[in-house]
# Entry
Amino acid sequence: MTKTRDKREEEALGKAIDSKLLKRLLAYFKPYKYYIFLATFISIFISALAAVRPRLTPIAIDDKIMNKDIPGLQIIVLILLGTLIFQGIVQYGLSYLTSWIGQKIIFDLRKKVYKHTINLNLKFYDENPIGRLVTRVTNDIDVLYEVFSSGIVTAFGDIFTIIWILCFMFTLDWKLTLITLSVLPLLVIATAIFRRKVRDSYRKIRLLIAKLNSFIQEHITGISVVQFFVKEKDTIEDFEKINRAHTKQNIRGILYYAVFFPVVELIGATAVGIIIWFGGGQVIQGIVSVGVIIAFLQYTEMFFRPIRDLSEKYNILQTAMASSERIFQLLDYQSPIIEPETPVDISKGVKGKIEFKNVWFAYNDGDNVLKNVSFEINPGEKVAFVGATGAGKTTIISLINRFYDVNNGEILVDGINIKNLKQRELRKNIGVVLQDVFLFSGDIKTNIDLGYDLISLETIDESIRNTGLEDFINTLPEGIYHKVTERGTTLSTGQKQLISFARALAFNPKILILDEATSSVDTETELLIQDAISKLIEGRTSIIIAHRLSTIQRCDKIIVMHKGEIKEMGTHQELLEQNGLYYKLYQLQYKENISVNN
Amino acid sequence: MKSLFSLFPYLKKYRKKLIIGFIFVAISIVLQAIYPLVIGNAVDELSSPVHKHEIFYYSLISIVLILFGGIFLFFTRQTIIVVSREIENDLRYDFFSHLQFLSRDFYNRNTTGDIMAHATNDINNVRNFLGPGILYSVQTLLRTGLTLFILFNINPGLTAIALVPLPLISYIVYRVMKSTYSRSMKVQEAFSLMTAKAQENFSGIRVIKSYVREEFETKQFDNISQDYQKKNLSLARLQSYSFPMMFLLTGLSIIIVVYFGGLMVIKGTLTLGNVTEFIVYLGQLTWPMIAFGWIINLMQRAAPSMKRLMDINNTKPEIADDASTNKSISEKDIKGEIEFRSVSFKYPDLDNYILKDINLVIKKGESLGIIGHTGVGKSTLINLIPRVYDIVEGEIFIDGNNIKKIPLDVLRKSVGIVPQESFLFSDTIENNILYSVPNENLITKHNFKNELVKSSQIAGLYKDVQMFPDNFKTILGERGITLSGGQKQRTAIARAVFLKPKILILDDSLSAVDTSTEEEVIQGLKEVMKERTTVMISHRISTIKNCNNIIVLSDGKISEQGTHEELLKLEGEYYNIYLKQLLEEEIEKS
# Structure
């Protein structure tokens, strides 16, 4: 995680600003355009307010103090105080407003990206590591926050601050202004050099930190190898090399700061020196007043900040480019599994007939997992699929759900090609129990009804009773509201299975797909599971990838798969008599169970 | 806060540099403090008839002052901040070095993520306190003291009034930073929650799609995302308010000076220059006041971090040489006979024994095969030989020496182990295989060329390497190529073979290798095994059937023992496994 993040930051530093991307990003401002106008307006207003105060100083000093006008001084001070407080309040409002806009847009964008991602097809999930997708909806979007909040709005503020200050300075004394501004190129050059140096050095530091962290991470993960090979001292030596390099680069970075800040101060002091020297000369000649000099001294200080801020904003924008590119790439990906334009209506539910007609399928081109598979399952029939690992059993399950589209042939449900059905409608009719039970964090109830509010508490209770979960649930003080932790680590394998059975029962599907778990459980749970399975498949078309003899014996038909092809088909007895592949599989997988079950 | 005292030894190492740094800070601050006086005087001079060259003289002085102030500030940063980086380096070095020697038990109790957090966040927290913390506290104290002294000398009354808002700034900064910290922790929590939800949903995408729960989950995610937004806005509110607040208070000080100072000027008790001086000095005091609140926060964050670091640094490695170690045993003395005598073992936090009363002798140069179900204790058994864990009861001997008496490095160098999870470093294949070569000998790496090729041939890896883009120089892992599971295992075998250990242990190291390659590796290993004691764990009979002795482990005990033929005759568990695997093979072929 840290590693990929460092890599990303590295990449982000080098990204140029792309106007197309920027335009697309800015489009997200649209719903909030009035707020943006407001924020921009306030920001311009504030910059004016800030610039006004030094303008009042010469009035206070030249007119009031010099003329010993105490009431006048009081008025000026009150005005100063008023603008100050007013500015503080408005500043607070602006700052909050921009954060609010930023957060709103981030929320909208995140919602959009999440919705898009969760609706993508399974192949996409096969091809993209989950960690990467998580980063898209979390970190990548967060990076954009600054662009949407303070970034653009305050950039306007900065520009206007500079403009206002220049205006006021010019109205005070244009000659003095021009002379003061003569140090500006120096400041710009110094800042530019510093920025470049610091950025280069920062990039190098980031690289070294990434290296350092991945070295630590790698050697913690592989600590046993380090210790087995007695390489502790060498490892420390190698580590110190990177550690040293990192420290050295950091110290070099300190050098830039150590030079830059005094230089900026020196430039400022030069401006002050010039004002005093040149302005002082003017004062002597009576052209300029002392108050003006003091105001100029204040303005020069105010002038430097927005210039530095502006270059900061540029960096923010650069960083955002890399993230937005990745996000838009994800948004532009379209699922190849297309919904039919005029779907056949099955909202009243299906009967449950399933047909595979010459189905060919490959996850990757040319590598066929299913070869010319055809079979028919009548409504209410129970069919077991058996075969060695890699025979293609699980693929059949995925195809019935239309998680993938077949390469050739067709799959029909109630005689309708599943490509002509709405995916949601199709899947609503199919209940799936997977071998590796997936539990969501939440309570047991949500894991059964999956948050579907049409499933009543009675239904849940009933399915708990029918799957034999009751006894277990009764031992829990919170009952069905017992919290399940991450991936259900607090529950036993058997309990997790039963929960997933209860889930399938509660949804009451016409077609049930069951991938039996291979893992062994204690005999008591085993009996519970067997019992639950028979309740589960009752009255439904059932497709079972069977690992238990008891399940197989309950099925109407057994289909034996081998390397993507159907090899044998028939009842348990028929197939045993054939003395073929099934016979061997039976001996391998089920023989041991015979003693247990019979 | 006490934990921060443990930083003393680190600071002491750099005391000369630090003292010089403090002197530089003092000088730069004095110079900066004189500067407003010069400006104030200049303004006063301007109010009275004056000569032009005098003004020039003032402006020159002010520039020179800043110049020298800057130069000394430069040296300050070059000393104090540099020292903080040096100490960071030392801290990280000590921390990482210590990690190398901690036992497996420590790593079982602490996740990689936790340890990484110590290595990054905690060290960072301490560093931030050391660098800016020390520099700014010295700067703040000196500058505040000096400025107050000067201001009081100019006009005590005005100083007293003008200073009223300043301590408030410190206090507000302190409070704001404190709540900022707690609020950003909440933001972090909400963020983790959001990440966890996304992670969970994307992992469980099959279930979600099967039960058509996309909309529901999206809504759930939106709720979490909304909560995250709320937490962020609460933080934003605080931050929005803190800046204008500070700005308000500094502005207030200046207005106070303008008004009361103005009155005094009118009365004639104060000069206009004095007022200017006050304004400039107040400007100079703002930053130290902000810094003051900030430093306290840095300290509060650094203290627990330092405590966590010290806790780990004070953890003693559980398995290490001690007084009873017989230092005279060297690698040459190890011949390779292993004996387990009534060995029982359980993991520290668990109640039941994983291994019960194991008695076993493996003669020098012979081989032992171990087979049995998952979780039966096979890996635990072999991990006891290089002392990954120490046994609870019984004794293990190598050549008649109790392994607890053999120096740990001698023991481990004599045992070449290929762990179940073949961990490789993201480095070249060559460096991975040559891993056991000490750094100082690596310069003469080309001397190992022949052995490198030989080890990889034995491990059945050589042909694969020939096909890699840069042969042995090909980099593995994230920045390079990804090896298949079988290739990884074979690389790990080559690494262990290269070591030429007296005892070679393979922990199910061919599980991901296909059967034909397995045959090749076993043939290659045969030659190596002649000269050394070998222990092999496998799920496949084919891997271990040629061993001199085979044991079947079940329920922590040796249930069957003998050669392949002997075990088949028993018609027990081994026989059953054998039959099953024959069938599997048959099915695979059909």
Observations:
- The domain at 435-508 of chain A is CATH 3.40.50.300 (Rossmann fold).
- The radius of gyration of chain A is 36 Å.
